[in-house]
Amino acid sequence: MDRLTSPRTIKYIMEKYGFRFSKSLGQNFIIDSNVLDRIIDGSELSETDHILEIGPGIGVMTQVLCENCEKVVAVEIDSALIPVLEETVGAFENLKVIHNDVLKLDLKALFESEFRAKKPKLIANLPYYVTTPIIMKFLEERVPVSDLIVMIQKEVADRMMAVPSTKAYGALSVAVQYFTEPSIVTTVSRGSFMPMPNVDSSVIRLKVRANPPVILESEAIFFKTIKDAFGKRRKTLLNALSSGILGMNKDQVRTALAASGLSENLRGEALDIDQFATLSNEIFKVMKTN
Ligand SMILES: C[S@@+](CC[C@H](N)C(=O)[O-])C[C@H]1O[C@@H](n2cnc3c(N)ncnc32)[C@H](O)[C@@H]1O
Protein backbone atom coordinates (compact mmCIF):
# COMPACT_ATOMS: atom_id res chain seq x y z
CA MET A 1 0.00 0.00 0.00
CA ASP A 2 1.35 3.46 -0.89
CA ARG A 3 2.20 5.67 2.03
CA LEU A 4 -0.06 8.58 2.89
CA THR A 5 2.75 11.08 3.33
CA SER A 6 2.40 12.89 0.03
CA PRO A 7 1.01 16.44 0.16
CA ARG A 8 -1.17 15.35 -2.81
CA THR A 9 -2.95 12.84 -0.58
CA ILE A 10 -3.64 15.52 2.01
CA LYS A 11 -4.95 17.88 -0.66
CA TYR A 12 -7.18 15.10 -2.05
CA ILE A 13 -8.59 14.51 1.45
CA MET A 14 -9.16 18.21 2.01
CA GLU A 15 -11.13 18.45 -1.22
CA LYS A 16 -13.11 15.22 -0.88
CA TYR A 17 -14.06 15.71 2.78
CA GLY A 18 -14.01 19.52 2.92
CA PHE A 19 -11.38 19.05 5.64
CA ARG A 20 -9.68 22.10 7.15
CA PHE A 21 -6.63 21.96 9.45
CA SER A 22 -7.41 22.89 13.02
CA LYS A 23 -4.69 24.91 14.68
CA SER A 24 -6.13 24.36 18.13
CA LEU A 25 -5.97 20.57 17.64
CA GLY A 26 -2.34 20.86 16.54
CA GLN A 27 -3.01 19.40 13.12
CA ASN A 28 0.36 19.27 11.39
CA PHE A 29 0.55 16.06 9.40
CA ILE A 30 3.80 14.27 8.54
CA ILE A 31 4.65 14.52 4.83
CA ASP A 32 8.16 13.05 5.05
CA SER A 33 8.41 9.31 4.57
CA ASN A 34 11.96 9.23 5.98
CA VAL A 35 10.62 10.50 9.30
CA LEU A 36 8.27 7.51 9.45
CA ASP A 37 11.17 5.13 8.76
CA ARG A 38 13.24 6.72 11.51
CA ILE A 39 10.36 6.42 13.99
CA ILE A 40 9.81 2.76 13.09
CA ASP A 41 13.52 1.97 13.49
CA GLY A 42 13.85 3.91 16.73
CA SER A 43 10.73 2.31 18.21
CA GLU A 44 12.10 -1.18 17.44
CA LEU A 45 8.65 -2.20 16.29
CA SER A 46 8.01 -5.89 15.99
CA GLU A 47 5.16 -7.89 14.51
CA THR A 48 4.06 -8.95 17.99
CA ASP A 49 3.81 -5.37 19.28
CA HIS A 50 0.55 -3.83 20.46
CA ILE A 51 0.25 -0.07 19.94
CA LEU A 52 -1.82 2.72 21.39
CA GLU A 53 -1.63 5.60 18.91
CA ILE A 54 -2.91 8.99 20.00
CA GLY A 55 -3.78 11.51 17.31
CA PRO A 56 -3.66 9.42 14.08
CA GLY A 57 -4.71 12.38 11.88
CA ILE A 58 -5.28 11.05 8.36
CA GLY A 59 -3.52 7.81 9.32
CA VAL A 60 0.02 8.39 8.01
CA MET A 61 1.66 6.65 10.97
CA THR A 62 -1.31 4.37 11.64
CA GLN A 63 -0.90 2.70 8.26
CA VAL A 64 2.75 1.86 8.92
CA LEU A 65 1.95 0.67 12.45
CA CYS A 66 -0.80 -1.64 11.16
CA GLU A 67 1.58 -3.08 8.58
CA ASN A 68 4.30 -3.77 11.15
CA CYS A 69 2.50 -4.66 14.39
CA GLU A 70 -0.06 -7.14 15.69
CA LYS A 71 -2.62 -4.70 17.04
CA VAL A 72 -3.20 -0.94 16.85
CA VAL A 73 -5.75 1.13 18.78
CA ALA A 74 -5.87 4.74 17.57
CA VAL A 75 -7.60 7.55 19.48
CA GLU A 76 -8.60 10.61 17.43
CA ILE A 77 -10.51 13.61 18.80
CA ASP A 78 -11.59 15.21 15.51
CA SER A 79 -14.90 13.84 14.17
CA ALA A 80 -13.99 15.19 10.71
CA LEU A 81 -11.11 12.70 10.55
CA ILE A 82 -13.13 9.58 11.41
CA PRO A 83 -14.52 9.06 7.86
CA VAL A 84 -11.07 9.92 6.48
CA LEU A 85 -9.46 7.19 8.60
CA GLU A 86 -12.18 4.80 7.45
CA GLU A 87 -11.05 5.41 3.86
CA THR A 88 -7.29 5.47 4.42
CA VAL A 89 -6.76 2.69 6.98
CA GLY A 90 -10.23 1.20 7.61
CA ALA A 91 -9.31 -1.99 5.74
CA PHE A 92 -6.78 -3.08 8.38
CA GLU A 93 -8.31 -5.82 10.51
CA ASN A 94 -5.79 -5.26 13.31
CA LEU A 95 -6.90 -1.61 13.79
CA LYS A 96 -9.52 -0.14 16.10
CA VAL A 97 -10.23 3.60 15.83
CA ILE A 98 -11.72 5.30 18.87
CA HIS A 99 -13.28 8.72 18.45
CA ASN A 100 -12.51 10.51 21.72
CA ASP A 101 -10.37 13.04 23.50
CA VAL A 102 -7.48 11.14 25.06
CA LEU A 103 -7.71 13.41 28.10
CA LYS A 104 -11.31 12.31 28.70
CA LEU A 105 -10.78 8.64 27.94
CA ASP A 106 -11.26 6.08 30.71
CA LEU A 107 -7.76 4.63 30.36
CA LYS A 108 -8.36 1.88 32.89
CA ALA A 109 -11.38 0.58 30.96
CA LEU A 110 -9.51 0.92 27.65
CA PHE A 111 -6.55 -1.06 28.91
CA GLU A 112 -8.78 -3.76 30.38
CA SER A 113 -10.68 -4.22 27.17
CA GLU A 114 -7.87 -3.78 24.62
CA PHE A 115 -4.50 -4.43 26.21
CA ARG A 116 -5.00 -7.22 28.72
CA ALA A 117 -2.73 -9.58 26.82
CA LYS A 118 0.25 -7.29 26.49
CA LYS A 119 1.64 -3.89 27.49
CA PRO A 120 1.39 -1.65 24.44
CA LYS A 121 3.81 0.97 23.18
CA LEU A 122 2.31 4.43 23.16
CA ILE A 123 2.97 6.38 19.96
CA ALA A 124 1.79 9.96 19.71
CA ASN A 125 2.16 13.08 17.61
CA LEU A 126 -0.10 15.49 19.45
CA PRO A 127 -0.55 19.22 19.88
CA TYR A 128 2.47 20.27 21.88
CA TYR A 129 0.50 21.81 24.73
CA VAL A 130 -1.11 18.46 25.59
CA THR A 131 1.92 16.26 25.04
CA THR A 132 3.82 16.86 28.29
CA PRO A 133 0.67 16.56 30.47
CA ILE A 134 -0.20 13.30 28.71
CA ILE A 135 3.31 11.91 29.15
CA MET A 136 3.28 12.82 32.85
CA LYS A 137 -0.24 11.40 33.30
CA PHE A 138 0.83 8.05 31.85
CA LEU A 139 3.99 7.96 33.96
CA GLU A 140 2.57 9.21 37.26
CA GLU A 141 -0.53 7.02 37.04
CA ARG A 142 1.68 4.12 35.96
CA VAL A 143 -0.51 3.33 32.99
CA PRO A 144 0.95 -0.01 31.86
CA VAL A 145 2.79 0.90 28.65
CA SER A 146 6.28 -0.40 27.89
CA ASP A 147 7.45 2.66 25.96
CA LEU A 148 6.23 6.12 25.05
CA ILE A 149 7.40 7.28 21.64
CA VAL A 150 6.30 10.86 21.19
CA MET A 151 6.89 13.75 18.85
CA ILE A 152 7.55 16.82 20.96
CA GLN A 153 8.98 20.28 20.60
CA LYS A 154 12.75 19.87 20.30
CA GLU A 155 13.35 22.13 23.25
CA VAL A 156 11.09 20.00 25.51
CA ALA A 157 12.88 16.82 24.41
CA ASP A 158 16.19 18.49 25.32
CA ARG A 159 14.79 19.26 28.78
CA MET A 160 13.76 15.63 29.26
CA MET A 161 17.27 14.44 28.32
CA ALA A 162 19.19 17.11 30.24
CA VAL A 163 21.95 16.38 32.77
CA PRO A 164 22.74 18.43 35.94
CA SER A 165 24.29 21.89 35.76
CA THR A 166 22.92 22.66 32.31
CA LYS A 167 20.34 25.27 31.42
CA ALA A 168 17.83 22.68 30.22
CA TYR A 169 18.01 20.62 33.43
CA GLY A 170 14.96 20.92 35.65
CA ALA A 171 12.08 19.17 37.41
CA LEU A 172 10.91 17.66 34.10
CA SER A 173 14.36 16.09 33.48
CA VAL A 174 14.45 14.45 36.91
CA ALA A 175 10.83 13.23 36.75
CA VAL A 176 11.17 11.75 33.25
CA GLN A 177 14.52 10.12 34.10
CA TYR A 178 13.06 8.72 37.34
CA PHE A 179 10.25 6.92 35.51
CA THR A 180 12.00 6.10 32.23
CA GLU A 181 15.21 5.75 30.25
CA PRO A 182 14.89 8.46 27.60
CA SER A 183 16.60 8.56 24.22
CA ILE A 184 16.21 10.74 21.14
CA VAL A 185 14.94 8.75 18.17
CA THR A 186 15.31 11.55 15.64
CA THR A 187 15.01 15.27 15.20
CA VAL A 188 12.40 16.46 12.71
CA SER A 189 12.58 19.76 10.87
CA ARG A 190 9.46 21.88 10.54
CA GLY A 191 9.45 21.30 6.77
CA SER A 192 8.46 17.66 7.35
CA PHE A 193 4.88 18.68 8.21
CA MET A 194 1.88 20.11 6.44
CA PRO A 195 1.03 22.79 7.36
CA MET A 196 4.49 23.78 8.56
CA PRO A 197 4.66 24.50 12.32
CA ASN A 198 6.91 27.27 13.61
CA VAL A 199 9.12 25.02 15.76
CA ASP A 200 11.37 22.04 15.13
CA SER A 201 10.55 18.73 16.77
CA SER A 202 12.19 15.66 18.22
CA VAL A 203 10.85 12.18 18.59
CA ILE A 204 11.77 10.95 22.04
CA ARG A 205 11.52 7.37 23.24
CA LEU A 206 10.84 6.89 26.93
CA LYS A 207 11.46 3.29 27.96
CA VAL A 208 9.49 2.78 31.16
CA ARG A 209 11.71 1.42 33.94
CA ALA A 210 10.70 -1.85 35.58
CA ASN A 211 12.11 -0.51 38.88
CA PRO A 212 12.92 3.04 39.98
CA PRO A 213 16.62 3.98 39.69
CA VAL A 214 16.75 5.17 43.34
CA ILE A 215 15.31 3.95 46.63
CA LEU A 216 12.91 6.42 48.21
CA GLU A 217 11.29 6.72 51.63
CA SER A 218 8.47 8.70 50.03
CA GLU A 219 7.87 9.36 46.35
CA ALA A 220 5.59 12.29 47.25
CA ILE A 221 8.36 14.01 49.23
CA PHE A 222 10.88 13.30 46.44
CA PHE A 223 8.67 15.13 43.94
CA LYS A 224 7.94 17.98 46.33
CA THR A 225 11.69 18.36 46.93
CA ILE A 226 12.30 18.62 43.19
CA LYS A 227 9.43 21.04 42.72
CA ASP A 228 10.74 23.32 45.47
CA ALA A 229 14.38 23.01 44.37
CA PHE A 230 13.63 24.08 40.81
CA GLY A 231 10.65 26.34 41.59
CA LYS A 232 12.96 29.21 42.37
CA ARG A 233 15.96 28.37 40.26
CA ARG A 234 18.10 31.30 41.35
CA LYS A 235 17.69 30.51 45.05
CA THR A 236 20.08 28.31 47.03
CA LEU A 237 18.71 24.98 48.23
CA LEU A 238 18.47 26.39 51.76
CA ASN A 239 16.21 29.24 50.65
CA ALA A 240 14.26 27.33 48.02
CA LEU A 241 13.43 24.37 50.27
CA SER A 242 12.44 26.54 53.23
CA SER A 243 9.92 28.58 51.24
CA GLY A 244 8.00 26.03 49.23
CA ILE A 245 5.38 23.31 49.34
CA LEU A 246 7.44 21.10 51.67
CA GLY A 247 6.60 23.61 54.42
CA MET A 248 9.99 23.25 56.14
CA ASN A 249 11.80 25.87 58.20
CA LYS A 250 15.47 26.78 57.70
CA ASP A 251 16.72 24.67 60.61
CA GLN A 252 14.99 21.58 59.26
CA VAL A 253 16.43 22.18 55.79
CA ARG A 254 19.93 22.71 57.27
CA THR A 255 19.68 19.38 59.11
CA ALA A 256 18.56 17.51 55.99
CA LEU A 257 21.25 19.12 53.79
CA ALA A 258 23.99 18.34 56.30
CA ALA A 259 22.88 14.71 56.64
CA SER A 260 22.94 14.45 52.82
CA GLY A 261 26.46 15.87 52.62
CA LEU A 262 25.24 18.86 50.58
CA SER A 263 26.26 22.50 50.94
CA GLU A 264 23.53 25.03 51.83
CA ASN A 265 24.67 27.24 48.99
CA LEU A 266 24.17 24.76 46.19
CA ARG A 267 21.31 25.27 43.76
CA GLY A 268 18.89 22.52 42.75
CA GLU A 269 20.31 22.41 39.22
CA ALA A 270 23.59 20.98 40.59
CA LEU A 271 22.01 17.82 42.03
CA ASP A 272 21.69 14.55 40.16
CA ILE A 273 18.85 12.10 40.75
CA ASP A 274 20.82 10.11 43.39
CA GLN A 275 21.49 13.30 45.36
CA PHE A 276 17.82 14.31 45.13
CA ALA A 277 16.89 10.84 46.44
CA THR A 278 19.30 11.10 49.38
CA LEU A 279 18.11 14.63 50.18
CA SER A 280 14.43 13.73 50.03
CA ASN A 281 15.03 10.69 52.26
CA GLU A 282 16.72 12.97 54.83
CA ILE A 283 13.84 15.46 54.53
CA PHE A 284 11.45 12.58 55.18
CA LYS A 285 13.38 11.70 58.40
CA VAL A 286 13.44 15.34 59.57
CA MET A 287 9.71 15.67 58.97
CA LYS A 288 9.01 12.46 60.86
CA THR A 289 10.94 13.52 63.94
CA ASN A 290 9.32 17.01 64.13
C1 LIG B 1 0.18 16.73 14.91
S1 LIG B 1 -1.29 15.92 14.30
C2 LIG B 1 -0.56 14.35 13.95
C3 LIG B 1 -1.31 13.52 12.95
C4 LIG B 1 -0.60 12.25 12.49
N1 LIG B 1 -0.28 11.36 13.58
C5 LIG B 1 0.67 12.62 11.76
O1 LIG B 1 1.74 12.46 12.35
O2 LIG B 1 0.60 13.06 10.60
C6 LIG B 1 -2.14 15.71 15.85
C7 LIG B 1 -3.40 14.83 15.80
O3 LIG B 1 -3.89 14.67 17.14
C8 LIG B 1 -5.30 14.89 17.17
N2 LIG B 1 -5.62 15.31 18.54
C9 LIG B 1 -5.44 16.55 19.07
N3 LIG B 1 -5.80 16.58 20.37
C10 LIG B 1 -6.22 15.32 20.67
C11 LIG B 1 -6.73 14.72 21.86
N4 LIG B 1 -6.86 15.42 22.98
N5 LIG B 1 -7.08 13.41 21.83
C12 LIG B 1 -6.94 12.69 20.68
N6 LIG B 1 -6.45 13.21 19.52
C13 LIG B 1 -6.11 14.49 19.51
C14 LIG B 1 -5.52 15.93 16.10
O4 LIG B 1 -6.85 16.00 15.65
C15 LIG B 1 -4.54 15.45 15.01
O5 LIG B 1 -5.14 14.48 14.20
Automatic annotation (TrEMBL):
It comes from Fusibacter ferrireducens. Coiled coil: none annotated. The keyword Endoplasmic reticulum does not apply. One of its GO terms (molecular function) is 16S rRNA (adenine(1518)-N(6)/adenine(1519)-N(6))-dimethyltransferase activity. This is Ribosomal RNA small subunit methyltransferase A. Belongs to the class I-like SAM-binding methyltransferase superfamily. rRNA adenine N(6)-methyltransferase family. RsmA subfamily. SMART domains: rADc (SM00650). The keyword Coiled coil does not apply. S-adenosyl-L-methionine binds at N28, I30, G55, E76, D101, N125. Residues 35-210 form the Ribosomal RNA adenine methylase transferase N-terminal domain. Its EC number is 2.1.1.182. It is an enzyme of class 2 (transferase). Keywords: Cytoplasm, Methyltransferase, RNA-binding, rRNA processing, S-adenosyl-L-methionine, Transferase. Specifically dimethylates two adjacent adenosines (A1518 and A1519) in the loop of a conserved hairpin near the 3'-end of 16S rRNA in the 30S particle. May play a critical role in biogenesis of 30S subunits. It is found in: Cytoplasm. It catalyses: adenosine(1518)/adenosine(1519) in 16S rRNA + 4 S-adenosyl-L-methionine = N(6)-dimethyladenosine(1518)/N(6)-dimethyladenosine(1519) in 16S rRNA + 4 S-adenosyl-L-homocysteine + 4 H(+).
